[in-house]
Amino acid sequence: MKKGIRKEKSEGKKIARTKDNSTTPYGRDAVKEAVLDATEKLLLKKSPNKITVREIAEAAHIKHPLIHRHFGTKDEVIIAVHARRIADIEKHVQKIENVEGNIATFFEAVKKIKFRRIALARALMDGVPPRAIQAEFPVMKRLLELIKKKVDEKNSASKFSPEMITAVLSSTALGWFLYEPYLTAAMNLEEKTRDELHQTVVEILEEMVSHLC
Questions:
Q1: CATH fold for the domain made of 7-72
Q2: Is the pLDDT of residue 86 over 80?
Q3: 122 and 47 in contact (C-beta within 8 Å)?
């Protein structure tokens, strides 16, 4: 530790504070968390392919070699950031046993993680391959499992595959969050509260599940 720098804890995180009161994380866990937090903030403003390792390091208040030491590459940092937020959503949906009556749970889980919606849309619009920002798709996988379960239980003869139904349901929910201000203005729905609108979207999604599966 350099002269003039003192170690302390802030909100459970290990940091080092300099004379000018700036802070830098120290210790493996604190450094990794700082990198993930800094990268998440950057991804809300920029596409993954426009962010550099040095930029992440500067935002995290660390030396850039530490990113390579703890994560490997910038791509692995990006995947780790998304994986952290995907896990936040996944924990809300993994215990669901039936899709009917539970679309609201999926909808609310996605609604809560604003970072995912914005960062995902920004990356895709810039042509970043989906597998470059997440290695697995556990939330989509769980919804697909539940759709398949419903199709099997009803012995449904739907002309649409469970995969396509899942994709369209998900696109409707994601698209609503992305374009909500535009959609409400175009359809003169501004007098409705956001909660009322979201409740109606969920009811429509439930109807889609009921008729398509």
A1: Arc Repressor Mutant, subunit A (1.10.10)
A2: yes
A3: yes
End-to-end CA distance of the chain: 62
Question: Cβ(27)–Cβ(37) under 8 Å?
Answer: no
The encoded tokens of residue 55 equal 């930029």
- 211 alpha-carbon distance from chain centroid: 29
Q: Report the 3 state secondary structure along 30-71.
A: HHHHHHHHHHHHHHCCCCHHHCCHHHHHHHHCCCCHHHHHHC
pTM score, two decimals?
0.78
Per-residue pLDDT averaged across 143-147, rounded? 94
Of residues 26, 132, 127, 9, the one with CA closest to residue 81: 132
Q: Which amino acid is at 207?
A: E
Residue 21: CB partners within 8 Å, gap ≥ 6?
Answer: none
Beta strands 13-17 and 6-10, pairing class: antiparallel
- Domain ranges for the chain, please list them: 7-72, 97-212
In tens, the pLDDT along 18-27 reads 444 457 787 8
